[in-house]
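Hi, here's the filled form for the chain we discussed.

Project: internal
Contact: R.S.
Residues: 161
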Amino acid sequence: MLRKYFIGSLFIILLLMGCAQSTAAYPNPETETPTSTSLPILSGDWKIKMTHSGGIMGLLRSVEVSADGKYTVTDERASQTFSGELGANELAKLVEVISTSEYISPSGPEGMVCADCFVYDLEIQGSDSTLTIQLNDINLPDSGMAHVVGYLRGLIDKALK
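And the returned structure, exactly as it came back:
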């Protein structure tokens, strides 16, 4: 009987230790600071792609927008694809959101695990460079990219209604 309690207690302790976050992986704020990166310039021929995945229901949606305003939204779970074209005001708003945003690299560990978080794989191909990043619900608020992700998520939601 005592052995069952010992094994049960050991299991619970190991389970709790596995869920704890280690502070050793975090940078020292006195010596290491997050770096800021300007987003690519959206002029000429550009493209933005975002994949929105994860969550408790295993979401897998994506959006791709090109410089001419044409976009494609895909919901892999529902096997649906929608195409459309942004109006001039919507396209100008997207360009404004991108041009006024700045990516701030996460101050926590790069591989931060979040079991039920949404993950946002974002690629912005501009005329001068390409930026590819992965964000999640934990590091999105401090990344400087919340408005970009919010705009693209809104586009996905609007297309899938």
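Let me know if anything looks off before we file it.
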